[in-house]
Amino acid sequence: MIQINTFPPDNSSERTILFKGYYLSIYNKETGDKKTHIMNQPITTTYESYTVPAGYSVHVRGATVKFEV
Q1: In angstroms, rounded to a whole number, what is the distance separating the alpha carbons of residues 15 and 29?
Q2: What are phi and psi of 50, to 5 degrees?
Q3: What's this model's pTM, rounded to 2 decimal places?
């Protein structure tokens, strides 16, 4: 389980993250746009799929994640 981590943006292509846990934020630091911002209470225990647009970072807390490539 990841306590806290920010995955940098991939400016070349969209990607998919599989997330389970407490906190997920998918955002574009350049524009301030947030595509996803969730805090799960209780913490989710099954993977949910989220699209990460090109140029967007992913910040997680208390989570397990996988990226589909």
Answers
A1: 17
A2: -135, 140
A3: 0.93
User: Across the chain, what does the average pLDDT equal?
Assistant: 96
Between the CA of residue 14 and those of 1, 5, 69, what are the distances in Å?
A: 24, 19, 9
Phi-psi region of 29 (alpha: psi -120 to 50; beta: other; left: phi over 0): alpha
Strand segments, DSSP code E, in the chain are 2-7, 15-27, 34-39, 48-52, 57-68
pLDDT score for 69: 73
Q: Residue 64 is which amino acid? A: T
Rg of the chain's alpha carbons, rounded to an integer?
11
Q: Tens of pLDDT along 1-30?
A: 999 999 999 999 999 999 999 999 999 999
